[in-house]
Write a structure and sequence with these properties.
The protein has 233 residues and is an alpha+beta fold. The chain is built from four helices and seven strands. The chain is elongated and about 115 Å long. The protein binds 2-acetamido-2-deoxy-beta-D-glucopyranose (3 copies). The site of one 2-acetamido-2-deoxy-beta-D-glucopyranose (NAG) has 3 residues, from strand 3. Keywords: Membrane, Transmembrane, Transmembrane helix.
């Protein structure tokens, strides 16, 4: 009897292990199928964040960035543009009502109304004599788009970084030439500061980082605007 039960117990044990292994495998496959999506999504997010760190911000980081952006572009921080001396740019005949005339308007509601009407009327007459070409005439400003490809760039905190530039391909950023039209006193032209994402040489490589390159937001002159609260040059 002992001789007969031994092989059958052996096969029972084999069958038990086979069935357990099958059940475990099925369980594992179900587990993977059910939890696959969230796992791969978080891996994908981590990978993208790792590759393009500066392109994503948390709402808190965005709030800090916006604060810095607004501080940089406050009229107190901007420099009034130079007067255009190029003969090509001197044909700008734009004129705004002077501020003094506007402040006189506070004497009487009727005077105010008349001056307001005159102001509107004058505003309609605002015009510039433009020549066909790349120059954009707006208010007292004359601007033109162009692209810069600098070798160095400063961040908001003033750190100077070396931009990664290759012989065959470079990093380009849009900017504007900004000039103030001659004899125009309506407003002050200035260039806003813009932040651009740039690939720079990682100063922490190789001691504190494995990556020879990194991304930072560099400050560059942006768009040319006519600011009411900036003095005309
Ligand atoms: C300025 O405008 C006048 C008249 O529109 C034109 O004859 C002259 O060539 C312009 N000057 C320049 C430098 O474009
Ligand atoms: C950044 O560093 C380079 C090289 O040392 C220098 O030529 C450049 O003037 C610096 N830029 C600023 C804004 O400090
Ligand atoms: C990296 O470490 C070495 C040795 O400690 C040091 O000589 C070198 O200046 C460091 N480089 C940088 C970029 O900090």
């Amino acid at each position: 009897m002992g001789d007969n039960s031994s092989p059958s117990r052996f096969w029972m044990v084999v069958a038990f292990f086979f069935i357990s292994a099958s059940l475990a495998l099925v369980g594992f496959i179900i587990y993977v199928k059910v939890f696959e999506k969230p796992i791969s999504r978080s891996i994908r997010e981590a990978e993208v964040l790792n590759r393009y760190p500066l392109m994503f911000r948390t709402p808190e980081e965005q709030a800090i960035f916006e604060k810095q952006f607004y501080a940089e572009n406050s009229a107190f921080n901007l420099e009034t543009a130079e007067i255009a001396t190029d003969t090509q740019l001197q044909n700008c005949s734009f004129s705004c009502p002077s501020r003094r005339r506007r402040s006189l308007a506070t004497y009487h509601p009727l005077v105010e109304w008349i001056n307001h009407y005159k102001g509107l009327h004058e505003m309609k007459k605002r015009d510039v004599t433009t020549q066909p070409g790349p120059n954009i005439y707006h208010g007292c400003c004359i601007s033109r788009h162009y692209f810069v490809s600098p070798d160095f760039g400063s961040t908001i905190s003033g750190t100077n970084y070396s931009l990664v530039q290759f012989d065959s391909r470079r990093q380009y950023f849009p900017s504007q030439i900004c000039k103030h039209a001659e004899n125009c006193r309506g407003c002050g032209c200035a260039q806003e500061i813009n932040f651009f994402t740039a690939i720079v040489v990682n100063p922490n490589y190789p001691n504190d980082s494995y990556d020879p390159y990194t991304m930072v937001a560099i400050k560059l002159p942006g768009c040319c605007k006519c600011f009411n609260n900036l003095p005309a040059p």
